[in-house]
Amino acid sequence: MIEYKRYDETTKEIPFAKGFFKGWPNPPSEKTHRRVLENSYRVFVAVDREKNEIVGFINAISDGILTCYIPLLEVVEGYQGKRIGQELAKHMLNELQEFYMVDLTCDNEKQPFYEELGMYKSFGMVQRNFHNQQGVGPKQ
User: Fold this and answer.
1) Which of 5, 46, 66, 121 has the most crowded Cβ, counting Cβ within 10 A?
2) Smallest Cα–Cα separation from 4: which of 72, 63, 84?
């Protein structure tokens, strides 16, 4: 059974299932993954209650006033195709409905997924420094 929860003090001790960031050339470590979630504005996780593992997550970063950005939505491979990503996205979009602007970027093949959730195409620019996928610490 999959349970959807906010990532907080009660869920941050639940272990991650293996397989997040599959295909990334330089994936973040589990410690960095935890830091990303802990430093986010909002996070929802999908927990496999039988295995007591986090099998999916979505996070948002925000100024807390007008704007939010959803940088990551991931579900580990063995759980994909079971609408877990859709449920995580619905939880997050519901949580962020009071904001003026909720943005994300995705590959073209993912756009229909987000259109089903009421989002629409936009145009933007991105920069990717793949050598930094493992994460960086705070500037000293």
Assistant:
1) 46
2) 84
| Angle at alpha carbon of residue 59, lines to 132 and 131, rounded to 5° | 5
Burial category of 92 from C-beta neighbours within 10 Å (exposed 0-12, middle 13-18, buried 19 and up): buried
Residue pair 124/41 in contact (Cβ under 8 Å)? The answer is no
Contact 97, 86 (CB under 8 A): no
C-alpha to C-alpha distance for 126 and 119, rounded to whole angstroms: 19
pTM: 0.92
pLDDT at 138: 59
The low-confidence residues of the chain, meaning pLDDT below 70, are 137-140
List CB contacts of 123: < 8 A, sequence separation 6 or more.
Answer: none
Q: Are 123 and 104 in contact (CB under 8 A)?
A: no
| Domains of the chain, CATH where assigned | 2-122 (3.40.630.30)
